[in-house]
Amino acid sequence: MIKTKTTRYDVAEHLRTPEEMAAYLEASLEAARGDAAFVAKALGDIARAKGMAQVARDAGLSRESLYKALSGERSPEFGTVLKVMGALGIELHAQPARA
What we know:
Layout: H1 18-32, H2 36-50, H3 52-59, H4 63-69, H5 78-88
Helix pairs in contact: 1-2, 2-5, 3-5
């Protein structure tokens, strides 16, 4: 019998371009349904794809605090989210809600 080896899927390994990262965050925002920790986890995935240490430096945060903020176990402060998005090169836009 052939044994199949499985590994844990890591979305960060598949986020290669800014467009893929933005699309992933957009999909996460839609799926989150108001869950800020869910969105923080998606930002963490994107930050890992870009390199957590570099994102932390660019955001003006320590690497450890960035890992904690984007772990998905809690909701980070909005200021932290804005700093991380700026460091990731992702813009926040607003539009009217769909009916």
